[in-house]
Specification:
The protein is an alpha/beta fold. It has one domain: Alpha/Beta hydrolase fold, catalytic domain (Rossmann fold, 3-Layer(aba) Sandwich), CATH 3.40.50. The chain contains eleven helices and ten strands. An eight-stranded mixed sheet has the order 1-2-4-3-7-8-9-10, with helices on both faces. A two-stranded antiparallel ribbon has the order 5-6. A hairpin with a 2-residue loop joins strand 5 and strand 6. The protein starts with a helix and ends in a 6-residue tail after the last helix.
Length: 298
Amino acid sequence: MSSTMRSFVTYVSWALCFGAFASVVAASSPTSVDAAEPGRGELSAELGGTTLTVFTYHPPACVSRGVLLLFHGARRNAADYRDLVRRHARRVCLNVYVPRFDRERFKSWQYQRGGVIRRGVVRSPDEWTVSLVQPLVQWARDREGGAGEPVYLLGHSAGGQFLSRVAAYSPPAGVRRFVVMNPSTHVSPDVDELIPFGFGWFRKPVASLKRYLSLPLTIYMGSEDIGSKNLYRNAAADRQGANRLERGRNTFNAARALAREKGWEFNWKLVIAPGVGHSFGRMLRAREAESAFGLEDR
């Protein structure tokens, strides 16, 4: 294959989006070998003494373009999330891994808020739930047979809260994009706001905050996600805004303003799907999903 043709294939593969270009996938040349059988599966991931059930989906009749690690909502219905994302995974040829964080072992302070602090005491990093994501990324890559496999992290609702803490406090290396979708709360770019809502009391808060703002992170919100059902409320959460949409906008705007003030690298995006509320399926079907995942940049 000529160098010109190879460049074209690389461009096309990353131009794929959630909701379009299925025919391009079939025509593109392979970039990796899918190590698993097509279809749905259920696995156990051993992560340094913690075992997680992981629901998987490998699209049939296409070659993997990367890994999508998906973090479920507060109902802990990982299998449902896996099933909801299948159509989109087929269109973009991403292999899906959805770990289940059960309520018995992962209460809301451990899942939604990352397990970083408990009753006013910062815990040891090896006890943080967010610290499980780096070995989980490596585990998924190993199953795909490639250390360089592109990885996307997506968290919706409670999973979006969790992913915000992952990005802020323990971001895994080599992630192509973090997509924080419809969370009730974020980690504010503020060294005075205490963890798990900011960087106060966190180790090396300024350096960690600077790293946070440099990540390829998307806050992806629905324009109609303005209700109060299951909206987390406390003083720190309410300082972020009155509803999920407002909190997402305020967090992004504060992060952008701080990066400009400090002259720091800033790689976040704010993407809003018009006419969509607190719906995982509709957020994925919206044409704005392409931009949320940064796929139009590839």
